[in-house]
């Protein structure tokens, strides 16, 4: 079999790339290791930047997002028991973010792909990538015990942090930068109205907490927990109790609790791969970089990577130009480092680092006091949170 682009991984990056290429008349096959239901069962990101909303519109799947997503023009920062609003909309001259879950983004993209009759192979086992240093790369996989090979022009590695594409690059051709944080996030999803109509990022001496949401009736909350914590250690009651202790009085009283419908722990990590292109194979999204979730940047970076990649591939096929392909890595990495820097900084500001002691907590509170009382400080937070425009750096 032959196609133009093999996309390894059918998460948000792979599916968005599939739609962008389809709109440009470029053939692609997606190979996904899991079932579609499994992919949709992973509860992850919740906040879309304007660039990601625009991409959903561009590929024609924005309708449900606009109908059901919640537009947020600000968020609260809580420290020393008090909440302070960052008015992103005012500070950035009208920019907002959209609360619309990654599950919904992926579902909308998958539905559009299916409606267009495009090929996704689910439960593709043992995917391997070959010859990406030549003009005819190949991808092999197994499905129902049968072996298959696809010859293609390009491979897009959209296969997440544990994928096969990055792992197949010769070690001498790649550099990896990594920071692992000494804690994780315990997340809970519940069919309860959110405690507040915007997000609350809380710095507490007991550790970080985040009050997020998926809709007006569904909440998502996170707690900073030690790396040794296990989901089974945390009953729902213990979670709600600890969350209350990290919130301000008003939120504590308003919090509506209920049974969890999902509970999981995610480790926090900053990770960047350089470069993101290896001959005819490109890495995108979590396959190339991980940010800690504190800045809500991961999914948005995945979306902008695949937009840059689709532009480069369209230029290749339509204009016979390799300029976009040659610039892909540099273009993505500038944005990746900017978002990665913000996520690292916001993580450092909001979490408890026991090794920094009480003075560390005091310094954090002083910095937060500065940020919310300084127009320049608040603007810096706001403009990083709403994200960079697509043509940034041009
Ligand atoms: P994904 O979503 O991991 O998808 C990769 C897909 O590739 C498949 N795969 C393979 N397929 C074939 N062969 C193989 N060998 C394969 N190996 C893997 C996998 O099954 C999977 O379907 O990566 P992608 O598409 O790059 O998307 C990235 C995002 O998922 C990620 O950046 C975000 O979820 C990060 N993130 C957040 N991002 C935001 O922008 N805003 C947020 O509010 C936000 N919150 C979060 C987050 C991530 C979290 N966790 C759990 C890490 C909150 C959390 C808790
Ligand atoms: C989420 O709702 O899952 C979420 C929101 C904001 C973040 C991280 C996660 O910074």
Q: How does this structure look, described?
A:
This protein has 394 residues and is α+β, with helices and mostly antiparallel strands. The protein has two domains: 231 residues, 3-Layer(bba) Sandwich (FAD/NAD(P)-binding domain); 81 residues, D-Amino Acid Oxidase, Chain A, domain 2, CATH 3.30.9.10. It is built from twelve helices and 20 strands. A hairpin with a 2-residue loop joins strand 18 and strand 19. Helix 9 runs antiparallel to helix 10 and helix 11 crosses helix 12. The two termini are 38 Å apart. The mean pLDDT is 97. The structure holds 8-demethyl-8-dimethylamino-flavin-adenine-dinucleotide (RFL) and P-hydroxybenzoic acid. The site of 8-demethyl-8-dimethylamino-flavin-adenine-dinucleotide has 37 residues, from helix 1, strand 13 and helix 9.
What would a concise description of this structure say?
This protein is of the alpha+beta class and 394 residues long. It folds into 2 domains: 5-71 and 98-177 and 269-352, FAD/NAD(P)-binding domain (3-Layer(bba) Sandwich); 188-268, 2-Layer Sandwich (D-Amino Acid Oxidase, Chain A, domain 2), CATH 3.30.9.
Q: Describe the global form.
A: globular
- CATH topology term of the largest domain: FAD/NAD(P)-binding domain
Helical segment tally? 12
CATH homologous superfamily of the largest domain, by name?
Answer: FAD/NAD(P)-binding domain
CATH class (first level) name of the largest domain? Alpha Beta
**Which spans of ≥5 residues are poorly predicted at pLDDT below 50?**
none
Helical percentage:
25-40%
The major pleated sheet works out as: 8 strands, mixed
CATH architecture of the largest domain: 3-Layer(bba) Sandwich
Overall domain count: 2
Round the Cα radius of gyration to an integer and report it. Answer: 21 Å
CA-CA gap between termini: 38 Å
Mean pLDDT, rounded to whole units? 97
As laid out across the biggest beta sheet, the strand order is 6-5-14-15-16-13-17-20
Q: Report the portion of residues in β strands.
A: 25-35%
Cofactors, ions, other ligands: 8-demethyl-8-dimethylamino-flavin-adenine-dinucleotide, P-hydroxybenzoic acid
Structural class: alpha+beta
Total number of beta strands: 20
């Amino acid at each position: 079999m032959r196609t133009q682009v093999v996309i390894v991984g059918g998460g948000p990056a792979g599916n968005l790339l599939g739609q962008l290429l389809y709109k440009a008349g470029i053939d692609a096959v997606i190979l996904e290791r899991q079932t579609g239901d499994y992919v949709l069962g992973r509860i992850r990101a919740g906040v879309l930047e304007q660039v990601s909303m625009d991409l959903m519109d561009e590929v024609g799947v924005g309708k449900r997002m606009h109908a059901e997503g919640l537009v947020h023009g600000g968020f609260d920062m809580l420290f020393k028991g008090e909440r302070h609003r960052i008015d992103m909309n005012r500070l950035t001259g009208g920019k907002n973010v959209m609360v619309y879950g990654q599950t919904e983004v992926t579902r909308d993209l998958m539905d559009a792909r299916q409606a267009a009759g495009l090929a996704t192979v689910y439960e593709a086992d043992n995917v391997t990538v070959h010859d990406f240093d030549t003009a005819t790369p190949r991808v092999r996989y197994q499905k129902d015990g049968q072996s298959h090979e696809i010859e293609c022009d390009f491979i897009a590695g959209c296969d997440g942090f544990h994928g096969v594409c990055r792992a197949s690059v010769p070690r001498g051709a790649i550099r990896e930068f990594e920071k692992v944080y000494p804690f994780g996030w315990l997340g809970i999803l519940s069919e309860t109205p959110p405690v507040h109509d915007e997000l609350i990022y809380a710095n507490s001496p007991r550790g970080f907490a985040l009050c997020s949401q998926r809709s007006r009736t569904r909440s998502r909350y996170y707690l900073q927990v030690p790396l040794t914590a296990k989901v089974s250690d945390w009953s729902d009651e213990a979670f709600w109790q600890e969350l209350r202790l990290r919130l301000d009085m008003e939120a504590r009283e308003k919090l509506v609790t209920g049974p969890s419908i999902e509970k999981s722990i995610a480790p926090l990590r900053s990770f960047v791969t350089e470069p993101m292109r290896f001959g005819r194979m490109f890495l995108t999204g979590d396959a190339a970089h991980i940010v800690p979730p504190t800045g809500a940047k991961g999914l948005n970076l995945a979306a902008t990577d695949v937009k840059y990649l689709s532009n480069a591939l369209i230029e290749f096929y339509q204009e016979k130009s390799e300029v976009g392909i040659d610039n892909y890595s540099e273009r993505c990495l500038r944005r990746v480092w900017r978002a990665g820097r913000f996520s690292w900084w916001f993580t450092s500001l909001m979490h408890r680092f026991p090794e920094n002691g009480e003075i560390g907590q005091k310094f954090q509170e002083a910095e937060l006091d500065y940020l919310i009382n300084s127009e320049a400080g608040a603007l810096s937070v706001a403009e990083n949170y709403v994200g960079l425009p697509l043509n940034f750096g041009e």
